[in-house]
Design brief:
Length: about 325
């Protein structure tokens, strides 16, 4: 792969992350309520709905903690030239302080616990020992983007990136699924089925890491989500099946499989993936961030609609999408050799 090809997919992954996050951010906690408020499908960026426990007050097109943390992690990877536990810990604390985490409603339970301990000087190899929610997976996309065609390395680095806040078998398995799928999606000519199968395989490899903790099997539940997404029901009923039978709560073993289901249901089309992520509701922004980061790396930046990119860059002007993509591409090129 030459540098422009690689850059296109890295930038696609970053914008996919932001698109899915921002597009699904206004979703309600149940698909019925999302449909009642926005009509059959969410067809544009909307602001956070009044009364939403985490997103009330956010602007149309604004990303949430998923993308904020992914960028914070990406900055640290670029600075260190690789993924390290201490870098992941610094990234997390930098993010937490930048959003005044102590007073913010949208810090997830594992990240909050870890950040508070890290700020008191705790060892980052211990602060994630109970982190089982989806915060590890929601920010992991940069780790996949720097390992084009090398899902095995993406999995070992996903485990390092999860250690400070999500050092449990289930959380690392979910993060490994996403990082591994993205690593595969970076290779031109990969089919969506190959990307999903790599995700399942990477989720199994991820189970070798982290503390033993309670949690359903991520790889087996990705298989189940793909099956539900491929049934002969109409699209909306397949989305309801994902919500009812897989779930889209903060649990890693729900969100990550649900995101793979949405990816399959949308056939990897980037805007359809964002729309279906909003429709599935629950922790929809995280489902969207994960599904669309994979779809974005698979499609490449050139396939994104210009108006969506314009909105994302304008509303989230604190992020230098192109500069970060450039930095990650340099590392990806080094890792290719
Ligand atoms: Mg979020």
């Amino acid at each position: 792969m030459n540098k422009p090809e690689l850059y296109d997919r890295v930038l696609g992954g970053l914008f996919g992350q932001a698109l899915g996050d921002a597009y699904a951010m206004p979703a309600y906690l149940h698909p019925r309520d999302t449909r009642e408020n926005y009509g059959e499908w969410v067809e544009e960026f909307y602001p956070g709905p009044p009364g939403h426990p985490a997103h009330d007050g956010l602007k149309a097109g604004q990303v949430t903690d998923d993308t904020e943390q992914a960028f914070s992690l990406a900055d640290m990877i670029i600075k260190d030239g690789k993924v390290t536990v201490s870098g992941a810990a610094r990234a997390l604390v930098n993010w937490y302080e930048s959003i005044d985490g102590d007073n913010s409603p949208y810090v997830g339970p594992s990240s909050r616990r870890a950040c508070q301990a890290l700020r008191e000087g705790a060892d980052p190899t211990t602060t994630g020992n109970q982190g089982d929610t989806d915060g590890g997976a929601m920010r992991i996309s940069p780790v996949g983007l720097i390992h084009p065609g090398d899902p095995v390395k993406a999995v070992t680095d996903a485990a390092l990136a999860c250690t400070p806040s999500h050092n449990t078998r289930v959380a690392i398995s979910g993060s490994a699924a996403v990082a591994g799928a993205i690593a595969r999606a970076m290779i031109p000519g990969s089919t969506l089925e190959e990307v999903v199968q790599t995700g399942i395989h990477s989720a199994s490899q991820g189970e070798e890491y982290g503390n033993t903790w309670l949690g359903a099997s991520v790889p087996r539940r990705i298989e189940l989500a793909v099956k539900l997404a491929s049934s002969d029901k109409d699209v909306y009923n397949r989305i309801l099946d994902l919500y009812d039978l897989i779930g889209s709560t903060l649990a890693t073993s729900e969100t990550v499989p649900c995101a793979f289901g949405i990816l399959v249901l949308s056939a990897g089309d980037i805007m359809t993936c964002a729309k279906y992520s909003a429709a599935v509701s629950g922790d929809a922004d995280t489902v969207g961030a994960i599904a669309c980061a994979i779809a974005g790396a698979w499609n490449g930046f050139a396939k994104f609609p210009a108006d969506a990119i314009q909105t994302l860059e304008k509303v989230n002007s604190q992020f230098d999408f192109r500069g970060v993509a450039e930095g990650l591409t340099e590392i990806a090129l080094r890792n290719l050799k």
